[in-house]
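If your schedule permits, I should be very grateful for your opinion on a structural question. Thank you for your consideration; the sequence and its tokens are set out here:

===
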Amino acid sequence: MVGRLLLVSLAAIFCICGVQSQENAQTRISAALQECYRDNLLFHRENRLPHTPEMLIELIRKVEDSPDWRQDMRQLAMSIVHRFRQDGIERAAGVDVSDTVLPFSPMGFQFTKHRILLSRLVPGNALTFPNETLTATERVSS
């Protein structure tokens, strides 16, 4: 009886307060990263910005200069990791990209370590990252 009451109470709290999990620690491509795999122009490496330290610094500077950003460097680093990092993404052989099917999933051996790191060791979430400050090309290149 007490166990059932506890279960009902927890369910009510979760429904009222809402439960937010790490999007990129789940066994599917996070919603924020799906744009990188659906759009052919963004998917091809030739269309992305160069992966250099200078470019990363410029993108971070652009986020920090946005008028809505009011967090410190630690919070920015955590939100970047939670927004743009998902290890072990592999393509399913013989499946094409469509509006309803995304032939990529985080099934590589690296994903297990990544999932533990994000869900248990790295605090924060991607909800605080100001996505609107970066263009689609900049988000995919990050």
